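hey so i finaly got around to running the thing on Alpha-galactosidase from Apteryx mantelli. pasting the sequence first so u can double check i didnt mess up the copy paste, my clipboard has been acting weird all day
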Amino acid sequence: MAAMTAAGRRALRRWALALAALAAAAAALDNGVARTPPMGWLHWERFLCGTDCAADPRRCVSEQLFMEMADAMASEGWKDAGYEYVCIDDCWMAPARDERGRLQPDPKRFPSGIRKLADHVHSKGLKLGVYSDVGNKTCAGFPGSYNHYELDAQTFASWGVDLLKFDGCNFGTLELLAEGYRNMSLALNKTGRSIVYSCEWPLYLRPVQQPNYTEIKQYCNHWRNFLDVSDSWSSIKSILDWTAIHQDSIVKIAGPGGWNDPDMLVIGNFGLSWNQAVTQMAMWAIMAAPLFMSNDLRDISPEAKWLLQNKEVIAINQDPLGKQGYRITKDNNFELWEKPLSGRAHAVAVLNRQEIGGPRNFTFSLTFLGNGLACNPTCSVRQVLPTSRDWGFHNWVSSLSVEVNPTGTVLLKVVAL
Ligand SMILES: *[C@@H]1O[C@H](CO)[C@@H](O)[C@H](O)[C@H]1NC(C)=O
Ligand SMILES: *[C@@H]1O[C@H](CO)[C@@H](O)[C@H](O)[C@H]1NC(C)=O
Ligand SMILES: *[C@@H]1O[C@H](CO)[C@@H](O)[C@H](O)[C@H]1NC(C)=O
Ligand SMILES: *[C@@H]1O[C@H](CO)[C@@H](O)[C@H](O)[C@H]1NC(C)=O
Ligand SMILES: *[C@@H]1O[C@H](CO)[C@@H](O)[C@H](O)[C@H]1NC(C)=O
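ok and heres what it spat out for the 3d tokens, dont ask me to read them lol
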């Protein structure tokens, strides 16, 4: 390989670009949104189904919670970093539809109504997300959208909603599950409002049937494949393992308009160490994941804020090429991942999966990154996480040695010159 001619390298590059164009051919839902992975805040992991506002006024699922989160997003740099959607999850509804069959918010917890909440969120330059379910009931037992897809889509649009998370509990049969997700997508389109459509279709389908991602991408802007994230390192590990095991089928489908969703960022909560938080941020960037934080933006450490607002990491996640990264090797309890970026660049992550001892060095050759193109014939290397630092210029046959803490990740950006 080291003797490869310049012409050979150019041919290899042309071939890789042609392959990349082919892989990007799957058509995405054409609703004008989610051209890069959507970013925002979603209440579920941190606030769950708190409905008792008398007992816990600051943490119950109420209009106050979303207004305070929107205010923090606008004033504390989150919006400037790219976080845009303030999203409601399950448990916002009244137990029954209104006399005209429409969904309605719980009157005690959302006394001003969703339209007013949307107005407030929009006045901050942000967008509002709501939640419903494809079946007769949501996961927490509130009214589902089955048999009401068009009415609910119209209701959401009339309120000024910008994103719908559509859960899959109580889906009935596999046919109803698929028809429900398709019909809601068409109903949202018919409203004429661009509404990000967040699906859980493959998650509910998978136990019984291999999802058809070409089809799912025609109807959804992002889709959950795997279990809910929780506030723990074991949860983050299981999501990464699942993604790596299934990367041959899911990575190629991701692109502008349609994304695999590994679930919320839990950074800023209680369960992750600093190194594990760095790993979640780095790997969610590598996976081109929608970045929905679930934490309390009114009370978050400066370290978590620095990490979540890190512009270089977010730029890797939001890269306009829209390619999801993948694991290249797993060796001696290290994992090496890469994500192709625009401008002949690659993001490279080295994850130390060993959970005993101290920092360890991982040494790898630049020759094989990016199918031989990442550092061809030379490149600049910059470390983005856990701290930013320039690593200078390297050439095609160089090796890099990076020191990685247990359960931590070193994230690099390699630009071919
Ligand atoms: C509805 O679908 C059509 C055809 O795919 C598309 O051109 C249009 O932009 C969509 N409208 C909305 C609001 O999603
Ligand atoms: C919802 O309930 C109705 C009436 O019981 C039933 O016919 C229908 O199949 C249910 N739908 C789903 C998606 O479970
Ligand atoms: C989806 O829409 C089609 C066409 O309107 C309808 O025949 C079908 O019953 C709907 N399916 C569900 C689950 O609502
Ligand atoms: C998957 O869905 C696409 C688009 O609807 C369709 O063309 C294709 O035949 C489906 N593939 C399989 C294996 O069913
Ligand atoms: C890793 O390599 C660097 C540079 O070669 C060296 O300074 C450092 O001590 C090494 N760390 C470990 C944990 O071996």
